[in-house]
Amino acid sequence: MSQSVAESIPSARGSEEEKERHNPDFCSECNTDEFLVTEHSETYCKECGVVTSGEPLDRSRRWVDSRSGRERERGAPTTLRLYDKGLSTDIGYYRDGNGHWLSNKTRRRFSRLRKWDSRSKTPSKRQRSLREGLVEIARLVSALELGDSIHDRAVAVYREAWSNDFLPGRSIEAIATGSLYAACRLERLPRHLEEIAAVARVDEDDVKGAYKTLNRDLHLATPPPLPQDFVPGIASAVDASDRVEHRTHQLVRQSEIGALANGRSPSSIAAACLYHSSLHGDQDTTLTQESLAEAAYTSTTTLRNVWLDIQELDDNGELPE
After folding, report:
1. Bridge partners for 64 per DSSP
2. How many H helices and E strands in the chain?
3. d(Cα 146, Cα 154) in Å, to the nearest integer?
4. What sections of 187-299 are H helices per DSSP?
5. How far apart are CA 91 and CA 96, in angstroms?
6. Which residues, in sequence order, are bridge partners of residue 44?
7. What value, to the nearest 5°, has the Cα angle with vertex 54 and ends 52 and 59?
8. d(CA 203, CA 75)
C-alpha cells in the first residue's frame, strides 16, 4: 500500500509540472510569471521572448466571390519569368504588417536588411546571371510592348542557354536580347534587329552574334520571316484601316507576290503591298511611302521599286480583285 502511494507522488508532481508548462500565464523557460506582458491578444515573456499564448492560426479555407460564383482563394501561380519562380518573399518598404508607418530609423535598418536579403537569394554568380537576364528580358518586353507569348518564349530560350552553360564568357545582356529576338522569330512575329537594338543595352552586332550562337547551339530552327509576318506591325505603325490590312493579307499570300519576295526583304514586300492596297482601297488618306519605309526599316527607293513591280502585276491582271 505504501509502495503505491510513493509511486503516485512523482506522477502527481509530473502532472503539475506539465500543467505549468502549458499554462499561458506562466513562462516555461524562466519558471515565473513576473516578466509576462500581454499586447494585441498575445502574451510573451520580456526576459526570454517565449510566447505563452497568442492568436491561433486560421487554417480554414478562404473563399472569394468571382464572376463564376464563390471560389476558393488561391495564391499567385508560379512563373518562369522570375528567377525564383515567384516562391520567395520580399521585405516591405514603408509599412509594417499592421499597416503602421515605419520610422526613419526602422526604414534605414530594413533597407540594409533588404539588400542582404536580395544577395542571399542569389549567393552564386551563376544564379545572379539568371536573375539579371530575366530582368533584362522583362525590360525589353516592356519597352517594345510585346505580348505574353513572346515573353514566355524568350524566357524559355534564355533558361535553356543558362542551363547549358552558354553564359560564361558572354554578355548577359546580349544573350537576353538575342533570346528575345529569337522568340519573336519563333512566334512568327518578327522584329527588326535595328528596332530591338534601339532599346537594348548592347550593340546590334552583339545581338546578331548572340542570336546566331543560340540558333546554332540550341538548334532553334527558327523559320524564315515571311511578308505576312510583318503586315500587322507595319499596319499598326501607320494606322492603316482594317479593310486595307485585310486586302494586304490577301496580296502577300499570292504566289506572284511570293516570287517578288525572292532575294528581297520581306518587310519591304509587306510595306509595298500596304501602299498598293491604300491606293486602291477606301483609306481616307493614302499612306505615304516615307512612313511605310520608316515602319518597315527600309528605304523609299526599295519600297518604290517593289511597288512598281506589284503595279505591273496588277495592270496585267495577275492579281485578284
Report:
1. 71
2. 13, 5
3. 11
4. 193-197, 204-217, 227-237, 242-252, 255-260, 266-279, 289-295
5. 10
6. 37, 51
7. 130
8. 40
**Cβ distance 166 to 130 under 8 Å?**
no
Alpha carbons within 13 angstroms on the beta-carbon side of residue 150 total 23
The whole-angstrom separation of Cα 160 and Cα 162 is 5
**Integer Cα distance of 28 and 45 in angstroms:** 10
Q: The pTM is what?
A: 0.68
* Cell numbers linked to 42: 498575445
Residues 6+ apart with CB under 8 A from 130: 83, 122, 159, 162
- pLDDT 10s per residue in the chain (321 long)? 444 444 444 444 444 444 444 555 778 778 777 778 887 667 888 778 778 776 566 556 666 676 777 766 666 677 888 877 777 777 778 877 777 888 888 888 888 888 887 777 777 888 889 999 999 999 999 999 999 999 999 999 999 999 998 888 899 999 999 999 999 999 988 889 999 999 999 999 999 999 999 999 999 988 888 899 999 889 988 988 888 889 899 888 888 888 888 888 899 999 999 998 888 766 566 788 999 999 999 999 999 999 999 888 888 877 766
**What residues are paired with 63 via a beta bridge?**
72
